[in-house]
Specification:
alpha/beta; single chain; 5-stranded parallel beta sheet; about 300 residues
Length: about 300
């Protein structure tokens, strides 16, 4: 597969607004079609190098910010993807946030509050490793967690109906539309892992003493809810992939190809911005020349 063909392929991973998603119809394993793992890793290096240059322009241009959202089931490779993408960025301009169980203070605010206050400033990049979507994933599978939010209309799990989830997905769409209209470029990646590959990775973590720390018994408990999570993901992918904030479904059984696809998509979205260094006026050039002359004439 040529690079132009590959670029066309990764754009096919974007979920079009309004499309109903059935995850069983999406591949979890990418067939490289001519790109070997070694070639893919070389392409990844090139992409990351280009991202570094574009990040510098993003900061200087100072009109956009970038929000990268990573969601997936356990062991899909989110942390590894973050590490590899981060190597293409200057750490000074990037923050990685991982949202765990909300604190009591966070529960006393609306569920988007803790995410909103971590959004990147203009010229900056933020990576949400798990995100506001946990509020329609973990809570969807375990609706009893919603009771901790002390919502006026929810006094028991019986109050958490389909209408509740539809409303919450619409709230997320409004949130993303708002930040997009104010200069935040939103890119959302769902790492699509097969159940068989998750099992293989779990066993590897148990067998390898250096990876034991990565495995938790809770991971196994959540695996028992596989079908529920797949259903929750299908609904949010179908209802929250918009032109302003699209979802990309990334085949995740092969880690190297998943990382390459993510980096290439980010690169393409960067290039679409047409960002540039600030244009220096004639007057500013004269001031720069005067400053240079002054420096050169120092004794």
């Amino acid at each position: 597969m040529s690079l132009p063909t590959f670029k066309k392929y990764i754009q096919s991973l974007k979920v079009k607004e309004g499309k109903k998603v059935n995850l069983k119809k999406y591949d979890t394993e990418y067939s490289p079609l001519g790109i070997t793992k070694d070639q893919g890793e070389e392409l990844l290096k090139e992409s990351l190098s280009q991202l570094s240059a574009l990040q510098d322009k993003l900061y200087a241009h100072n009109r956009y910010s970038i929000l990268i959202v990573l969601q997936a089931i356990d062991a899909a490779g989110k942390d590894g993807a973050v590490r590899h993408v981060m190597t293409g960025f200057n750490p000074m301009g990037v923050r990685v946030l991982s949202f765990k169980q909300p604190s009591s203070n966070e529960l006393d605010h609306d569920y988007i509050w803790r995410h909103y206050k971590e959004l990147p400033a203009r010229g900056e990049i933020a990576i949400f490793n798990r995100s506001h979507y946990e509020n329609v994933l973990v809570t969807r599978v375990h609706p009893e967690y919603i009771l901790g939010e002390n919502l006026p209309e929810v006094v028991s799990v019986k109050n958490i109906t389909q209408e509740f989830w539809t409303k919450r997905l619409k709230q997320i769409n409004r949130f993303e539309k708002n930040i997009a209209e104010n200069g935040t470029i939103v890119m959302k990646f769902f790492l699509h892992l097969s159940k068989e590959e998750q099992k293989r990775r779990f066993v590897e973590r148990i067998d390898d003493p250096k990876k034991n720390w990565k495995f938790s018994v809770d991971d196994l408990k959540e695996r028992a809810h596989w079908d529920d999570y797949q259903s929750a993901y299908e609904e949010l992918l179908s209802k929250t992939s918009t032109d302003e904030a699209p979802w990309f479904i990334i085949p995740a059984d092969n880690k190297w190809s998943a990382r390459l696809a993510i980096s290439e998509i980010i690169l393409q979205e960067f290039e679409n911005l047409k960002i540039h260094y600030p244009i220096v006026t004639k007057a500013q050039k004269l001031e720069l020349q005067k400053a240079k002359d002054q420096l050169m004439n120092e004794k």
